Amino acid sequence: MAARLAEAATRPGVTKSALVEEALDRLLGSEDDFSDTATLARQFAAMSGQLEQLDRNLRIVNETVALHARFHLAVTPLLPAAAQEAAFALGAKRFEEFAAQVERRVDRGVPLIQETIDRVSAARAAAPRDDVLKARFIDTTISRGNNDDNNEDEAAVPEKSAQSSRVTGRQVAANLAANGSLILRVFLPFVTGYYAAYLFRSINAVMATPLATDLGLGAGDLGLLTSVYFLTFAAAQIPIGILLDRYGPRRVQSALMVVAALGSALFAASENFPMLLLGRALIGLGVAAALTAGMQALVLWFPRERVPLLNGLMVMLGALGAVTATWPAELLLARIGWRELFGLLAALTAVCAILVHLVVPEAAPARSKAVSVGLKKVFGDPRFWRLAPLSASSIGTAWALQGLWAAQWFADVDGFDRAGVVRHLFMMAIALGVGGIGLGIAADRLRRRGVGPEVLLGLVATLFIAIQLALILRLPLPSYVLWSGVAATGAATVLSYAILAEYFPKALTGRANGALNLFHVAMAFAVQYATGLVVQQWLPDAGHYPEEAYRTAFALNVAFQVAAWIWFVMPRASLRPPVAWRPRPSES
Question: Which of 50, 452, 525, 546 has the fewest CB atoms nearer than 10 Å to its CB?
Answer without folding.
Answer: 50
